[in-house]
Amino acid sequence: NGPFGKQKKKKPSFRKLLKTSNVKLENKLKNRQFKQQSTAKKQRKEQRKLRQAISDVSQKAPKPLEHYKTKPEDEEDEEFLESLPTDMMEEDDLEEIRAMAQKASFITRDLSSSAPVHAKKRKSDQPLEKYEKMPRKMQQSDEKELIHLLPIKDKSGLIPQSMEKPDQEEMEQEEQTESLLNLNPEEQLKLRSQKLMEKKLRIAALGSAILADPTCNIKKLKELRAMLMETDSCVAVTVRKLVMVSLMEIFKDIVPSYRIRPLTEAEKAVKVKKETKQLREFEEGLVSQYKFYLENLEQTIRDWKQKKQKGSQAVSLSCYKGLAEVAIRCMCELLVALPHFNFHNNITVVVVSFMNEPVKKVSEMCCEAVRKLLKQDKLGQASLATVRVISGLVKSRNYKIKPAVLDTLLSLRIKEVEVKKDSEDLAPKQKFMNFKEKKKNLSRMQRKVMKEGKKEMRLEVVSLKSSNTETLNIVFLIYFRILKKAQKSVLLPSVLEGLAKFAHLINLEFFDDLLSVLHSLVMSGDLSHKESLHCILTAFHILSGQGDVLNIDPLKFYTHLYKTLLVLHAGASNTDMTIVLKCLDVMLTKRRKQVTLHRALAFLKRLATLALHVMPDSCVGILAANRTLIHTFPKCDILLDNDMQGSGVYLPELDEPEYCNPQNTCLWELHTLKRHYHPMVKKYASHLLAGAPSEGSGALSIDLSRRAPSQLFEDYSVKDMTFNPPVMGPPSKKKEHFPIYNFCYLDSNLKGQIDAALSIEDQPESLDFAAHFAQK
């Protein structure tokens, strides 16, 4: 070929291909596809114009021949040819049109008609001709084109049919499904595992590249995130799950320990170093990809809730639940792992909304994540945001939520709050070490750190106290609303348990109202035993803190607890013994100065009676509580003697501890418990019968004496229906299996027959033989 002739395009060399980036090749491919689409679009437009012109001519109203003015044939030919678009026609077509134009019949009939000029029309052909006369216009839509199909004929007439032009992706998917259907199950499984392995290797390669150098490879996050839209129906569900979890772990590793804020216009205008610019690009890309990832997770969850199916149909509706569970799990992990990073409040809103989900697995997952977050939060900001969202959820659902949602609030780490001045004066003052005493106990490095960070620590303490105060106000607002508006709700036990935990932090101004509400709840009789015990515990927590200054005698709460003790048993209420032991500690031990001897004796006797019909773990806890009572009130040892003190008879059925004459009875139950099968019950009963000495022959070991009653109840728990501690099995001697052999006088003949029966092992005849002699 010459210099101006056509030259063949040379293939690029391997070295040149290496220099060409992937992005450039993708851009070239996109440009080529765009050009092809634009040329095809132009051709379709020109064909549409041609058809429109022909249809316009066919729709003109025909006129009789006599009304036309005769014109020269040359002028008629020119006018008709000018009305047609001849620029896109071939010469043969033009010649045919000129030949047809010379005939007069061509002007008086439609172009679409191919019948003879003077032929008669049949009635059956009229609807077909009517349909053929209708102009066929393509429906103009930006997204999809319509393809006109053959019409359907019924009694009413012809029904036009059309369909959307299928996309290339859908056609590829159909081809894949057809190819899969042609394979047998073994080949399908093999093909799926092969594809899945390729995807896994791709995910692993991208993930390792990002973790190796996050700053330079931040753009690969986009490639990995694009795999969330996997369209291959064979592996789509598994690949999407793997990508979700992989991205979650990558973000947990590469996210910095600070919050990234957007740059201002002034900061963008300033020239910075190359390293700073690179860091800014990394932070901007990280935040944007993290946002898109969270949006994908949220969209997956929303599709499951709304039961929407995407147009690609790569994932069936039945698989959306599994995808949504993985997405929620990723959200929960990010909630706990990244409380300091961007969009944490958005994650909190999503997770808290699913705490009340009917699906048990999802609900438990979200509640556990919130519980972990509240336990590990040391700054208080994440806890405050979470409690606000929970408060909004409770209010929006009109208090119709699961108790587990409110139980998560028990994990709050609130120990100090901002106290008002009037309550500061009433609260007992604590003794603090002065600066010199602190300095003596510190090392040189600690002194230096203390000197530098003294101001920062003060600011942190102040901010923590203020956030804790605000959090606690919201928590009490939730509790008080439920106490006021939903007293018969299933949330009441959770509310009472929460009030019992945080009661020492309530302001003094609420004490009277709260105590009156608790008393009315206890006396109403609508509460279960566990709920009433929580009410009593809450009331005494209030009175043991700042409530010491109040002159209130909670005699009615003592009476109710004394009455409730005999309702407990070895069945389902055995688990309520923890609350009972806590109540006894707060009501009797910590308020020893306000408790009379008669009240202490009555509780000691009733607890001994209760120990006879509860499980061993509860019995150990009750006996330990009795030991504490004897040590707290030394005069209670009169119940260990048989002598009566004063007048009257003990009235065990009376529910008033002050008037049941407990001094006129004794703890005879300890002699029964001394022969209990549980070793710890035996030990504690013998210890109490000896007078509960602190040292000597009847004293307990140091380890046991230091354990609290509630701790002993947990240590020797029998909730798994096993012996705790385990009981030794019977001896392995065969003779001891038959006590009749040791205690009965047998003649030598019968004795020999039984020995012969015992020597035969694993044979049913020997067992029948032994049973026969046992009956004799």
From TrEMBL:
The keyword Ubl conjugation does not apply. Residues 63-72 have a biased composition (Basic and acidic residues). One of its GO terms (biological process) is DNA replication initiation. Residues 532-685 form the CCAAT-binding factor domain. Its main location: nucleus. It is found in: Nucleus, Nucleolus. One of its GO terms (cellular component) is nucleolus. Residues 1-81 are annotated as: Disordered. Keywords: Coiled coil, Nucleus. Pfam families: CBF (PF03914), NOC3p (PF07540). GO terms for molecular function: chromatin binding. Residues 199-293 form the Nucleolar complex-associated protein 3 N-terminal domain. The keyword Cytoplasm does not apply. Residues 1-18, 41-51 have a biased composition (Basic residues). It comes from the Eukaryota. Belongs to the CBF/MAK21 family. This is Nucleolar complex protein 3 homolog.
